[in-house]
Design brief:
The protein is built from four helices and eight strands; from the N terminus they run αβαβββαββββα. The chain has about 160 residues and is an alpha/beta fold. It has a domain of about 100 residues: Cupredoxins -  blue copper proteins (Immunoglobulin-like, Sandwich), CATH 2.60.40. The longest helix is centred in the C-terminal third of the chain and has 14 residues. It is globular. This is Lamin-like protein. InterPro entries: Cupredoxin (IPR008972), Phytocyanin-like (IPR039391), Phytocyanin_dom (IPR003245). One of its GO terms (cellular component) is plasma membrane. Pfam families: Cu_bind_like.
């Protein structure tokens, strides 16, 4: 077991790289999920969104809700066949689980005044090969695509290293 001790820094590095990076976005920033906010401008300012990111909707209890709908319902402000509907409390957190378009509206009538949001969740790109990266003596910032490394691959690498010991 004494030989496994030098592997500890490598294990910590692998676990650090394996942490999946997800961003949390407060929809509407400080204005929240409320009438009078231009969510098209907000979306453009914050894109790109990726699978694993979270959208957090803050709204006034009893005054708004968050309804996920399809594109047709989004364009018509029609909440009659929701994919999901959340109206309890004062906030709702939604994870972008798939690479696709997501559509959200408020069913309290504010959708007609622009209280709706269309988001495209893009897949995380796999990290580029170390051989394809330019060499530089300057420290580099790990790109967001490095988040695609999973805990499973880190565990597999650790297992392989431990077999060498």
């Amino acid at each position: 077991m004494a030989m496994a001790t030098p592997l500890l820094p490598l294990l910590l590095l692998l676990l650090t790289l394996a942490t999946v990076s997800a961003d949390k976005f407060t929809v509407g920033d400080s204005k929240g999920w409320n009438p009078g906010v231009n969510y098209t401008v907000w979306e453009k300012k914050n894109r790109p969104f990726h699978v694993g990111d979270w959208l957090v909707f803050y709204y006034q209890e009893g005054m708004a809700d968050v309804v996920e709908v399809d594109e047709v319902a989004y364009n018509k402000c029609d909440a009659s066949n929701p994919i999901t509907n959340y109206s309890k409390g004062r906030s709702f957190a939604f994870e972008l689980n798939h690479s696709q378009m997501y559509y959200f509206i408020c069913s309290y009538g504010y959708c007609y005044q622009g209280m709706k949001l269309a988001i495209k969740a893009e897949p995380l790109t796999p990290p580029s090969s170390p051989l394809s990266q330019k060499t530089s003596s300057a420290p580099s910032i790990v790109p967001r695509s490095a988040a695609a490394v999973t805990l499973a691959s880190a565990a597999a690498a650790l297992t392989a290293l431990l077999r060498l010991v």
